[in-house]
Amino acid sequence: TVAAMPGEWNFWVDPDAASIVLGSGVPLRLVGLDVTRRVRFSRADAEELAASGGDFAGFAAACATGWIDHLERTTPGDDHDRGSCALHDPLAMAAVVEPGLVTWRPAYVTVETGSDRTRGVAVADLLGEAEPPRANCRIGVDVDAERFRRLFLDRISTLR
């Protein structure tokens, strides 16, 4: 997320499609940036991955290290990204395979489609009103980051 793009990337590029999906009635799970940014892939993780000897592991480690270098150059004031990067999409995918990695909460979620300043921002109604809107998805509110990290490293290190 940057000032020019305050929403989550997939919602930001097509908030109208995201709104249609949220209103579709299909069972959904969302893992937002507030949760995915808690899962960090560090330089030490990249070294461990490279040392695993997997055919794909060295490539993945080099890509991750390059991305960490890029983040440090382009966002030097962001201590959160110093020496590591978030694993947004891998966590979202892992949450499908291993739902217990994430703590889920039912919520009514909408996405901002009208304003350029807040385009793609997901808004979850968590106020606990007496008659809240009916939940249209389950949102991730916490993650077992270490369990995910181990799962990720184990899976990537065995790819051939």
Overall description:
This protein is of the alpha+beta class and 160 residues long. The protein has 2 domains: 1-39 and 87-147, no CATH class; 41-86, no CATH class. It has helices at 9-13, 15-22, 33-36, 43-51, 57-74, 88-97, 145-157; strands at residues 29-30, 40-42, 84-86, 102-111, 122-125, 137-143. The protein has a 4-stranded mixed beta sheet with strand order 1-6-4-5. α4 packs antiparallel against α5 (57-74).
Q: Keywords for this structure?
A:
single chain; 160 residues; alpha+beta; 2 domains; four-stranded mixed β-sheet; two-stranded antiparallel sheet; 42% helix
In short:
This protein has helices at 9-13, 15-22, 33-36, 43-51, 57-74, 88-97, 145-157; strands spanning 29-30, 40-42, 84-86, 102-111, 122-125, 137-143.
First-last Cα distance: 33 Å
Number of helical segments with 4 or more residues: 7
* Fraction in beta strands: 15-25%
The pLDDT mean sits at: 90
**Shape descriptor:** globular
Identify low-pLDDT runs: none
Number of strands: 6
H/E element sequence: HHEHEHHEHEEEH
Tell me the strand order in the biggest sheet.
1-6-4-5
- Characterize the largest beta sheet: strand count, sense, and whether it forms a barrel: 4 strands, mixed
Total discrete domains: 2
User: Share of helix among residues?
Assistant: 40-55%
How does the helix and strand content classify structurally?
alpha+beta
Radius of gyration: 17 Å
- Oligomer state of the chains in this structure: single chain
GO biological process, one term: purine nucleoside catabolic process
EC number: 3.2.2.1
Domain Inosine/uridine-preferring nucleoside hydrolase: 7-149
Keywords: Glycosidase, Hydrolase
